[in-house]
Amino acid sequence: MTALKARVVEVVHETADAHSLVLEPAEGDRDRFTYRPGQFLTVRVPAEDGWAARCYSLCSSPHTDDRLKVTVKRVAGGLGSNWICDNVTAGDVLEVLRPAGTFSPASLDEDLLLVAGGSGITPVMSILKSCLAGGTGKVALLYANRDEKSVIFAAELRELTERHPDRLTVVHLLESVQGLPTPATLRSLAAPYTGRQAFVCGPEVFMDLVTGTFTDLGLRVHVERFFSLETDPFEEPEEPPEDTGDAGEVEVEMDGETRTVPWAKSERLLDALLRAGVDAPYSCREGNCSACACIRLEGEVTLDANTVLDEQDLADGLILACQARPVTDRLKITYDG
Ligand code: FES
After folding, report:
1. What angle do CA 295, 44, 308 make, to 5 degrees?
2. Which atom of ligand 1 is nearest to 270's Cα?
3. CA–CA separation, 135 and 128 (whole Å)
4. pTM for the whole thing?
5. Each residue of 143-185: pLDDT tens digit?
6. Which residues line ligand 1 at a C-beta cut-off of 6 Å?
7. Which of 172, 223, 261, 299 could join 331 in a cystine, given CB atoms 3.0 to 4.6 angstroms apart?
């Protein structure tokens, strides 16, 4: 069974339309909830004709928080966000998939430039807290909001800035005060940090603006994009294909353990892993979210679809297990990189 259970121990009303859920994994599922800063959870939500799934970033840090926390902001007409904000209370049990995603810095000791628009602060907050507590790098945060009342985590950010005056710089951009951010504003704010990697999350238009401006400045930009899932990823994987005589194998490293499992050339890597009982992460199974990303150490694959990994990610060896088909007979991958 791939779904995990988490109990809601508290609902925090962050702003008028943003709720945080503090989650505690069910006893037997604890080990499968380990996560990296910036990752997200896929949550099963009721829909008119059955079930749907939505992804929410973790704003907690594996370096500072005992419990997991996701923050959900209402979206006009949004199925998942409104269901959560209207219905979920302490004591409820949610079905989720294990934490996943690639919006996570390779090192917490590097200096970073973080940029958030509105509720895009959620994964950025996880990265920020993790760097300050678990690393040595300096962090600059540019945080854009409509007005002061919309600023999520305002008090926590103030407190962190006071505690780490030499390592954390927070710049608030309020539409009600400075107007909407422009390329010129972003260029001048980013100028002192052009040697850093940038992690950006927020509304699509905002991320496009920041990405365009920062790329021109020569910054390496990582973005986190969310979308509605077309299928129900909580359904069990499909049955194995007939034996077509195209056997191969994949060696997989996960959670410090190594296993070798059979992988027919006619099937996708994620299906082969799940069938063999490997607890591989995934969410959309459509090549759109990067939840299933792992690092290719040996061998070659092709990807049926990919809207989420950029050329640098691919050059770094990242592949999407849900879309990968083998080219070579043997492959070695790791989820521990
Ligand atoms: S599960 Fe979403 S890209 Fe593979």
Report:
1. 30
2. 4
3. 10
4. 0.89
5. 999 999 999 999 999 999 999 999 999 999 999 999 999 999 9
6. 282-285, 287-292, 308, 320, 322
7. 299
